[in-house]
Amino acid sequence: MGALVEWFTVPFQFDFMQRALLVSVVVGAVCAVLSCWMTLIGWSLLGDAVSHAVLPGVVLSYLLGVPFAAGALVFGAGSVALIGVVNRTSRVKEDAAIGIVFTTMFGIGVVLISKIPSQTDLMHILFGNVLGVSDSEITQILLMAAVTLAAAALKHRDLTLFAFDPTHAHAIGLSPRRLEALLLGLLSVTVVIALQAVGIILVVAMVIIPGATAYLLTDRFERMLVISVAVSVAASVLGTYASFHLDLATGGAIVVAQAIAFALAYLFSPTQGVVLRRRPARRSPSEPENAHVREA
């Protein structure tokens, strides 16, 4: 018991671990909230696109000596707007527009990376550096997280209706295009927030896995939000602890912890788990064999 308590308390003796745990929890919570809407709408590819499209902004920010968040936010929002323009003004479908924009942006970022003299800085950009986050960066993260969560809470009902039925949302006077723009803007900010924790390569996992895990565990959106946040925060804390005690990459450890949570839900979810679904359901002797099948 004493060893377990020590395992949890020792990291708090170090200032860098206190900052890392704070950032990991905040990032995990914000990503989990957005993840639910992303999962319902089916925007997984778009989350991947935004996470890669911010690379040029991050690199330019580094080269110019300005905060990473500034450049990442500009390029993230700009890429989302560019995807919409290409989709609306040409015959190119949305998935193709996403692929074109994010690969182009990522290619520009790779070219710019060649101008960075230090390989260590490159690793921090790609895989995050939550253990080295500064006080000023924590302030930026907390401010952006507060704005994102406040906007999500304020437009919670509208965004949820848009995710489930955009046609009905339009019928009652809401603007699906504005709600889409709001959600994409929140996604861009969320990606920027998560960069410090897991980097550009792994940020898409933070935006997708928590919502997908919760989606397997409940059919109620409010519960989905709670489960998603709980899973993401727990995985962020456990991943950060594991990186400290086992000398692992923090971002990778967090994502692996989330992946394990998803795997457990995929296998053992009471309603959607693969293992439990394969068990034959019990029927009363008088119940027809296909009674569970509803008429189409």
From TrEMBL:
Pfam family, one: ABC-3
CDD domains, per database record: TM_ABC_iron-siderophores_like
InterPro entries (alphabetical): ABC_BtuC-like (IPR037294), ABC_TroCD (IPR001626)
Primary location recorded for the protein, binned into one broad class: membrane
Localization annotation: Cell membrane; Membrane
Keywords associated with the record: Membrane, Transmembrane, Transmembrane helix, Transport
GO cellular component, one term: ATP-binding cassette (ABC) transporter complex
Segments traversing the membrane: 20-46, 58-84, 96-114, 184-217, 224-242, 248-269
Protein topology in the membrane: Multi-pass membrane protein
Organism superkingdom: Bacteria
GO terms (BP aspect): cellular response to iron ion; response to zinc ion; transmembrane transport
Alphabetical list of SUPFAM superfamilies matching this protein: ABC transporter involved in vitamin B12 uptake, BtuC (SSF81345)
Record family assignment: Belongs to the ABC-3 integral membrane protein family.
PANTHER family found in the cross-reference section: ABC-TRANSPORTER METAL-BINDING PROTEIN, IRON TRANSPORT SYSTEM MEMBRANE PROTEIN HI_0360-RELATED
Protein name: Manganese transport system permease protein
Annotated source species: Spinactinospora alkalitolerans
